[in-house]
C-alpha cells in the first residue's frame, strides 16, 4: 500500500498537535478501481504549522540565500528527481492511470526541466535609471540614481490539479523557490504520490527546513481552503477549474492576497481547406485524445472549412475508433461527469461519429474508469456540450465557410486558454492567430511548449501569465531604490 506523507518544517508526517492527524482517505487506482494506498488529510493545525514553518524559513537561512545558492539548490532537486526517475514515472502513472510512456516522456522530464530552467533564469535583471529632482517637491537636489531590486513575496501557497501532477506542481514550485519565497504546496487529493517523492528529494537536497512544505488533503472546507484563505499566505498560485479559482479568489480578497490562476478551457481548432489534412487529422487526434482529453490544452471544439468537412469527420472518426492505448478518467466521479456529457450531447441533438460510451477490454480495466474517445457533430453553439468544459476524450466538429466566421466561432466561448490553426497559407495564419481570444495559439502544431514563453489564459481561463521570466515576475516584487548622487 502506498502512503503519502506531509512534509512540514523539514519533517515528514502530520503535525503532532493536529487533532485530525489520524484522518486519512483512500487512494484509488483509476485503472481498476482498487484501493492502493492512503493519504493523510491535513487539518487546520497542519496547515498552520506549514505556513509558520515557511515564515520561519524566510526569517532564517532560506531568507538569506542569494541567487547562486538558490540556483544550486534547484539543480540538486533536478538531479534528485533524475536519480529516482523510474520511481517518479511509476508513481505518476500509478496515480493517474496514464500510460507509463507518457509519464516517462512528458511529466517527469518536464518536472526536471522546470527546476533546471529556473536555476538558469533567476539571475536578476538590473534596472537602473537617472532622475532629476523637482525643486519644491522633492527633497534633495540635482540627479538621483534609481535602481530596482526584486524581493520575494514571502509565503506562497501552491495548489495544483491531478491531470499533470508533478509537471504542474513543479511548474510553480521551481520559480517560487528560485525567487526566494518559501512554499506550502497542496497537490490534488487524487494524485499525492509524486509530490511526496518530491518532498523526499527536496529534503535530500538540503534546503533549509520550512523552505518547502507539503500538505495533503481535499479542497473545499479542507486543506486547500484552509491554505488559500490563510492570513499568513502572501500569494496564491493555483491551477484547476475556473469555479474553484473564483472560490479561492473570494476568500483571498479578505487578505488582498495576489493570485496567479491557470484555469479551465474549451479550446477550439480551426481547420482550413488549404491545410495539410493528414497533419490536421493527426494533430487533432493528439490534441483531443492525449491523456484521454484530461489536459487543459486539449481541443474540444473543432471547426472545419465546409469543402473538407465530410472527409475530415470521416477520417477523425476512424482514427478515434482505432485508439486502444489510452488511460482512464481520474476517478469514478469524473468518469460519471464525462458520461453525463456524452448523454447530454445526444439529448441536445448530436450525431455520434465515434465512441460515446464505455469500452470493454475483457480485463481488469473493465472495473476502472474508462470512457471511449468520442467524436460528435450536429450541435450548434448554444448547446451546453459546446459551452462547458468536459475534460475528457470528446470533441465536436462543426463546419464553417469563411475566415471571419471561423474566428467568430472560435471566440464564442467564456474560455480563452488555447487554440490551434491548421492552414498552409502563411498570411492567413498570421491574420487569424492574433484575432483568436486565447492565451496561446498554435499554428500547424499543438502543445509545442517552450518553458520560457508566457503561459496562461484570458477570459475565464486564467489570471496572469506564468513561464520563464513571467513566473519570476509574479513570484517577486520590484522595489525601486532612489539614491541622490
Ligand atoms: P479542481 O479545481 O477541482 O482542483 C484543483 C486543486 O484545487 C486541487 O488540489 C483541489 O483539492 C483544490 N481545491 C478544490 N477546491 C478548493 C477550494 N475551495 N479552495 C482551495 N483549493 C481547492 O481541478 P481538478 O479537477 O483537479 O483539475 C481539472 C481542472 O483544472 C480543469 O478545469 C482543467 O482545465 C484545469 N486545468 C487548467 C490548467 C491550466 O494551465 N490552465 C492546467 C491543468 C488543469
Ligand atoms: O506545458 C506547460 O507548461 C503547462 N503549464 C501545461 C499545462 C497543461 C494543462 O493541463
Model description:
With 485 residues, the chain is an alpha/beta fold. The protein folds into two domains: 286 residues, Aldehyde Dehydrogenase, Chain A, domain 1; 184 residues, Aldehyde Dehydrogenase, Chain A, domain 2, CATH 3.40.309.10. The chain has 15 helices and 23 strands. The strands form six sheets. A seven-stranded mixed β-sheet has the order 15-16-17-14-13-19-20, with helices on both faces. It is globular and about 75 Å long. 51% of the residues are buried. The structure holds nicotinamide-adenine-dinucleotide and (2E,4E)-2-amino-6-oxohexa-2,4-dienoic acid. (2E,4E)-2-amino-6-oxohexa-2,4-dienoic acid binds next to loops.
Within the CATH hierarchy, at the fold level, what is the topology of the largest domain?
A: Aldehyde Dehydrogenase, Chain A, domain 1
Radius of gyration: 24 Å
> CATH superfamily name of the largest domain?
Aldehyde Dehydrogenase, Chain A, domain 1
Largest sheet: 7 strands, mixed
Low-pLDDT regions:
none
Bound molecules: nicotinamide-adenine-dinucleotide, (2E,4E)-2-amino-6-oxohexa-2,4-dienoic acid
Subunit arrangement of the protein: single chain
Features:
485 residues; alpha/beta; Aldehyde Dehydrogenase, Chain A, domain 1; Aldehyde Dehydrogenase, Chain A, domain 2; 2 domains; 7-stranded mixed beta sheet; 6-stranded mixed beta sheet; 15 helices; 38% helix; 22% strand; globular; binds nicotinamide-adenine-dinucleotide; binds (2E,4E)-2-amino-6-oxohexa-2,4-dienoic acid
How is the secondary structure organized here?
Layout: E1 2-3, E2 7-8, E3 11-12, E4 24-28, E5 35-40, H1 44-59, H2 67-83, H3 85-96, H4 100-121, E6 127-132, E7 143-152, E8 155-159, H5 165-178, E9 182-186, H6 193-204, E10 212-214, H7 223-228, E11 235-239, H8 242-252, E12 259-262, E13 267-271, H9 277-289, E14 299-305, H10 306-322, H11 332-347, E15 351-354, E16 374-377, H12 384-387, E17 394-400, H13 403-411, E18 415-416, E19 418-422, H14 426-432, E20 440-443, E21 458-459, E22 462-463, H15 468-474, E23 476-484
Parallel strand pairs: 1-5, 8-9, 8-11, 9-10, 11-12, 13-14, 13-19, 14-17, 16-17, 19-20
Antiparallel strand pairs: 2-3, 4-5, 6-7, 7-23, 12-22, 15-16, 18-21
Helix pairs in contact: 2-4, 2-6, 3-4, 4-5, 9-10
Bound molecules: nicotinamide-adenine-dinucleotide and (2E,4E)-2-amino-6-oxohexa-2,4-dienoic acid.
(2E,4E)-2-amino-6-oxohexa-2,4-dienoic acid is lined by residues 163-164, 171, 295-297, 449, 455.
Amino acid at each position: 500500500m502506498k502512503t503519502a506523507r506531509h512534509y512540514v518544517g523539514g519533517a515528514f508526517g502530520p503535525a503532532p498537535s493536529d487533532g485530525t492527524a489520524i484522518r486519512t482517505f483512500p487512494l484509488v487506482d483509476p485503472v481498476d478501481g482498487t484501493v492502493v494506498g492512503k493519504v493523510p488529510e491535513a487539518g487546520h493545525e497542519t496547515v498552520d504549522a506549514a505556513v509558520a514553518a515557511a515564515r520561519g524559513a524566510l526569517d532564517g537561512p532560506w531568507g538569506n540565500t542569494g541567487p547562486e545558492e538558490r540556483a544550486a539548490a534547484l539543480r540538486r532537486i533536478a538531479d534528485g528527481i533524475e536519480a529516482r526517475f523510474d520511481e517518479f514515472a511509476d508513481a505518476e502513472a500509478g496515480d493517474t492511470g496514464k500510460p507509463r510512456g507518457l509519464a516517462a516522456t512528458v511529466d517527469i522530464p518536464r518536472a526536471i526541466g522546470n527546476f533546471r530552467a529556473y536555476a538558469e533564469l533567476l539571475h536578476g535583471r538590473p534596472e537602473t535609471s537617472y532622475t532629476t529632482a523637482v525643486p519644491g517637491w522633492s527633497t534633495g537636489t540635482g540627479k538621483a540614481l534609481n535602481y530596482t531590486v526584486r524581493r520575494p513575496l514571502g509565503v506562497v501557497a501552491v495548489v495544483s490539479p491531478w491531470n499533470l501532477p508533478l509537471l504542474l506542481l513543479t511548474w510553480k514550485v521551481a520559480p517560487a523557490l528560485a525567487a526566494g519565497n518559501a512554499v506550502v504546496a497542496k497537490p490534488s487529493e487524487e494524485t499525492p504520490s509524486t509530490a511526496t517523492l518530491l518532498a523526499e528529494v527536496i529534503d535530500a537536497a538540503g534546503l533549509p527546513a520550512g523552505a518547502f512544505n507539503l500538505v495533503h488533503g481535499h479542497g473545499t472546507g479542507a486543506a486547500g481552503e484552509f491554505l488559500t484563505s490563510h492570513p499568513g499566505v502572501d500569494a496564491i498560485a493555483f491551477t484547476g477549474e475556473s469555479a474553484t479559482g473564483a472560490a479561492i479568489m473570494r476568500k483571498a480578497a479578505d487578505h488582498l492576497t495576489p493570485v496567479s490562476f491557470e484555469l479551465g478551457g474549451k479550446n477550439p481548432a480551426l481547420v482550413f481547406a488549404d491545410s495539410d489534412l493528414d497533419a490536421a487529422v493527426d494533430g487533432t487526434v493528439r490534441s483531443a485524445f492525449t491523456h484521454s482529453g484530461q489536459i487543459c490544452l486539449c481541443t474540444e471544439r473543432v471547426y472545419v472549412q465546409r469543402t473538407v468537412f465530410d472527409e475530415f469527420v470521416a477520417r477523425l472518426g476512424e482514427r478515434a475508433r482505432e485508439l486502444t492505448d489510452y488511460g482512464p478518467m481520474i476517478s469514478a466521479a469524473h468518469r460519471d461527469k464525462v458520461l453525463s456529457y456524452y448523454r447530454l450531447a445526444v439529448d441536445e441533438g448530436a450525431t455520434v461519429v465515434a465512441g460515446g460510451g464505455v469500452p470493454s477490454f475483457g480485463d481488469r480495466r473493465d472495473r476502472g474508469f474508462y470512457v471511449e474517445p468520442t467524436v460528435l457533430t450536429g450541435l450548434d453553439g448554444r448547446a451546453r456540450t459546446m459551452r462547458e468544459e468536459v475534460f475528457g476524450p470528446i470533441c465536436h466538429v462543426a463546419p464553417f465557410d469563411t475566415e471571419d466566421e471561423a474566428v467568430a466561432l472560435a471566440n464564442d466561448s467564456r474560455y480563452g486558454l488555447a487554440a490551434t490553426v491548421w492552414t498552409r497559407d502563411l498570411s492567413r495564419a498570421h491574420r487569424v492567430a492574433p484575432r483568436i481570444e486565447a492565451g496561446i495559439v498554435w499554428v500547424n502544431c499543438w502543445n509545442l511548449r517552450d518553458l520560457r514563453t508566457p503561459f496562461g489564459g484570458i477570459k475565464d481561463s486564467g489570471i496572469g501569465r506564468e513561464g520563464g521570466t513571467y513566473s519570476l515576475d509574479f513570484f517577486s516584487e520590484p522595489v525601486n531604490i532612489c539614491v541622490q548622487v
